[in-house]
Amino acid sequence: MKRMKRKNKVSISYIIGVALLIFALTVATSAYYTSGNDRIGIFPQELGGLKLVLYVDGADAINEVERLHMGGVSPENAYIAQYSSDFDNVRFWISIVENAQVAQQQVDLMIEGMKKTTMFSQPVKLTIDETAVYSTEDNDGKFHYFFAKDNMVVWLSTENPDVEHQKQLVKRSIEEIGI
What we know:
The chain is an alpha+beta fold. It has helices at 2-33, 58-68, 100-115, 163-176, and strands at 39-40, 43-44, 46-47, 50-57, 77-84, 89-96, 124-128, 131-137, 143-149, 152-158. The chain is built from four helices and ten strands.
């Protein structure tokens, strides 16, 4: 009989230990996700008061980026995200290319391509956080910004006409989006 009681005590101790371990892991995971580190891929869950509502990566994102450029680009990888709030809807298209030089070449090609179309206004160069950023507006009244960051080509579109909001959004993008 003494052996049975001891086995039951070990079993109860084991169960309590496992339960405490599960509890500790749950608390640690919760602390991690509420500490601002909550990301999906290269995107934060929240960006300047906007919530991430769409995320696409891999082959689907690559195909979409290639379609938008009519086959003129071949990224190694791509990401698409959409953020929304009551005051704005923002969409990102990000291409991952070989290196920073290729990323800048892609931006330069976009600038040249935009000079040949009436879909967009002529790009205007801005400097935000020491990054050369180009802005343009399309025929539907959406505002677009694009730039090279390391080996990424970033394009974002926003519906909010507030220029200061747009610049803050680009600044946050430069700081917070990345691999």
